[in-house]
Design brief:
Distance between the termini of chain C: 27 Å
Oligomer: heterotrimer
Shape of chain B: globular
CATH class of the largest domain in chain B: Alpha Beta
Largest sheet of chain C: 2 strands, antiparallel
Largest interface: A-B, 25 and 26 residues
CATH superfamily of the largest domain in chain C: Winged helix-like DNA-binding domain superfamily/Winged helix DNA-binding domain
Number of helices of chain B: 8
Chains: A mainly alpha (about 270), B alpha/beta (about 230), C mainly alpha (about 130)
Number of strands of chain B: 9
Distance between the termini of chain B: 38 Å
CATH architecture of the largest domain in chain C: Orthogonal Bundle
Strand content of chain B: 25-35%
CATH topology of the largest domain in chain B: Rossmann fold
Number of helices of chain C: 5
CATH superfamily of the largest domain in chain B: P-loop containing nucleotide triphosphate hydrolases
Shape of chain C: elongated
């Protein structure tokens, strides 16, 4: 059932995101041309047009980033908490599956947006020399890698993976904070949206407050003494840091997951 | 086993009581009118049966199951509001229902849509309010469910659409399934019903057969309703 | 066929009456198969169980018979249909007379009035 939920979630969001990506790539291509021939042109109309094309690209970047964020909130709000909720929440599907479907699809769009942005930037910057240089750098890295010891290569890969996992998890956990705020605000009979916004800021405050308390607690605990006496190598320190952050983000996400489930299951209050 | 059963069911919203120790059961094969004035608890009852609300006390079961993902397989629910996503085309809506409900009879739905001259590629966004309500009813009635919960299916539509909706309910009748129709427009649905449940202020006032009422009281259910709920 | 219902009698008895009228008037000819319960119910806009009950009652009276797989048929017995026609007519006449007596007419007056009305009806029909 999760797969089917995700399929329809992609259908609903894809009709907005895919055209946006296309626009992004087209305007990137336009900017490339503008940068090469138009902006420096003697004819002012052509130069102006070139300027507009670059501006369109900037707007497209902004729109794609904003949209993947807005869609994350809007799909949860409109599809589960508004009229469509009557249909969605009476499907033979558990609340957990609903949240996972929304979460996974949102994070996939976040990542795709990042990837398409990267691709668009490549398109803008594209010329023969640039590509040569780009692959030249790759070749350098590869040559460098060959000189690496196996342990160093492995550590490098793992660190990159850990970093990516941290980013994904953070995006998911951040989305869950929004879900939890919406679910909590919409359990009240009136002014649902206002309360949701309020809840979000209360959650934000709590996260910061508890986070700070945690760090203060940590600095006074024996763990801190152990850490300050510990003298790890750079690589071990990076691993430890990343893993600790992953653990913290997991706790942060899990708390808001539980809050979201609690309100959707026990205190659902569709209009 | 009853299609829908409540025992001492209670639900409050804050300090207001929506349902107060409601007890009744509905057997399969019956078309039942859930009748009561506005705010009498009809929608609350239907939401509880769907698991969109949780009871404060007592219990409610659908085909012997407490509300949850399992019981939702047996229920086909028509909400009071248009809940189908309006960005979908008619065909995408059928895909959606076919994906989530094993009992969805796609051919029946396609036939009913064709009968209304609705093309599969038409987007729900482009349809009139009346057409949206008809499409929603079509997908709901195209399921071979065990319990149909129709919340105000004929409220706010024109008389021709009303006739269409009622005849769709009759022509999809299944002797193994129960149909619950909540409404305050009694005169229109009376002939379609086997029995009626009168509820008022969250309490059951009467459960009786339509012809039983007509035979014993010599008046229509509509007339009886007006008498019972006289202001 | 036109289906009409009043508010004071059970729906199934009204259905019985109207199907009887249909049979007598030839809408459902003798020996012909009746539409299915669901189709009849949809057409009349009534509950299928109520329609089922009305047909079962008609079956008990003998105006309708069912064959296990083929469905329900109108009786081929013409005298039975005649009897039904007769009893429907009697009901109408009884109701008519009751109304006339309530208006204060005597039996002879009713007859005279009826004759006069029928003559006029015949004339207007002939001229038309």
């Amino acid at each position: 059932m999760l797969r089917k939920l995700m399929k329809h979630e992609f259908r609903a969001t894809g009709q907005i995101m895919l055209p946006l990506y296309l626009i992004l790539l087209v305007t990137a291509f336009g900017s490339n041309i503008a940068g090469r021939w138009m902006i420096d042109s003697q004819i002012s109309a052509v130069s102006l047009l070139g300027g507009f094309m670059v501006m369109a690209f900037a707007i497209a970047i902004f729109a794609a980033c904003l949209m993947s964020f807005v869609l994350m909130i809007q799909r949860f709000y409109k599809n589960l908490l508004q009229d469509e909720g009557y249909l969605m929440l009476t499907l033979p599907v558990s609340i957990h599956q609903h949240i996972w479907a929304k979460l996974i699809v949102s994070v996939v769009w976040f990542i795709t947006t990042l990837f398409v942005l990267f691709l668009a930037c490549m398109v803008v910057a594209y010329n023969v020399r640039f590509i040569q240089e780009f692959f030249g750098v790759f070749a350098d890295i590869l040559r460098g890698l060959q000189k690496l010891k196996i342990s160093e290569a492995l550590n490098g890969t793992v660190i990159i993976l850990e970093f990516l996992v941290l980013i994904f998890l953070f995006l998911a956990a951040f989305s869950l904070q929004f879900y939890a705020a919406l679910a909590a605000g919409h359990s009240l009979p009136n002014h649902k949206m206002a309360y949701s916004v309020g809840c979000f800021f209360v959650f934000q405050f709590l996260v910061q407050f508890l986070g700070t308390m945690f760090l203060i607690g940590l600095s006074k605990s024996p763990v801190f003494r152990f850490l300050s006496n510990w003298d790890p190598s750079a690589i071990v320190a990076i691993h430890t840091g990343l893993l600790m952050m992953i653990a913290l983000v997991l706790v942060y996400g899990a708390i808001f997951y539980i809050v979201t489930i609690f309100f959707l299951k026990k205190h659902l209050n569709l209009e | 086993m009853p299609a829908l059963e409540c025992k001492e069911l209670c639900k409050n919203y804050g300090r207001t009581t929506a349902l107060d120790r409601l007890t009744f059961s509905i057997e399969p094969g019956r078309i039942v009118g859930l009748l009561g004035p506005n705010g009498s608890g009809k929608t609350t009852l239907i939401k509880l049966a769907n698991g969109l609300l949780t009871p404060d006390a007592g219990y409610i079961s659908v085909c012997g199951c407490a509300p949850g993902p399992q019981s939702r397989k047996d229920i086909s629910y028509l909400p009071e509001r248009t809940a189908i996503p309006i960005w979908m085309s008619a065909k995408q809506l059928l895909d959606f229902y076919g994906d989530f409900y094993e009992d969805f009879r796609r051919d029946a739905a396609e036939e009913m849509l064709a009968h209304l001259n609705i093309s599969p590629s038409q987007r729900i966004k482009q349809m009139s309010k009346g057409t949206r309500e008809k499409v929603q009813l079509i997908v709901v009635m195209s399921r071979a469910a065990k319990l149909y919960l129709l919340d105000e299916p004929i409220g706010g539509v024109d008389p021709a659409t009303r006739d269409y909706i009622l005849s769709t309910i009759i022509s999809n009748y299944n002797p193994e399934a129960a149909v619950v129709i909540s409404t305050h427009l009694i005169a229109d649905v009376e002939k379609v019903l086997d029995e009626v449940l009168f509820i008022n202020q969250g309490q059951l006032v009467l459960q009786a057969g339509v012809d039983e009422i007509r035979e014993e009281k010599g008046m229509s259910v509509d007339a009886l309703f007006r008498e019972v709920f006289k202001c | 066929m036109q289906w009409q219902f009043s508010n004071d009698a059970p729906i199934y008895t009204q259905l019985i009456q109207q199907i009887k009228v249909g049979i007598v008037a030839g809408v459902f000819p003798p020996g012909e198969r009746l539409p299915s319960v669901r189709d009849l119910a949809t057409e009349a806009g009534v509950n299928p169980n109520t329609m089922q009950r009305a047909l079962a009652e008609l079956e008990r009276d003998g105006l309708v018979y069912s064959q296990r797989t083929a469905g329900r048929f109108v009786t081929e017995d013409k005298t039975m249909i005649q009897n039904a026609k007769r009893s429907l007519a009697e009901r109408h006449i009884k109701a008519f007379l009751e109304a006339m007596f309530r208006l204060g007419f005597q039996q002879e007056e009713v007859l005279a009035l009826l004759e006069q009305e029928m003559k006029e009806e015949g004339n207007s029909n002939a001229s038309a």
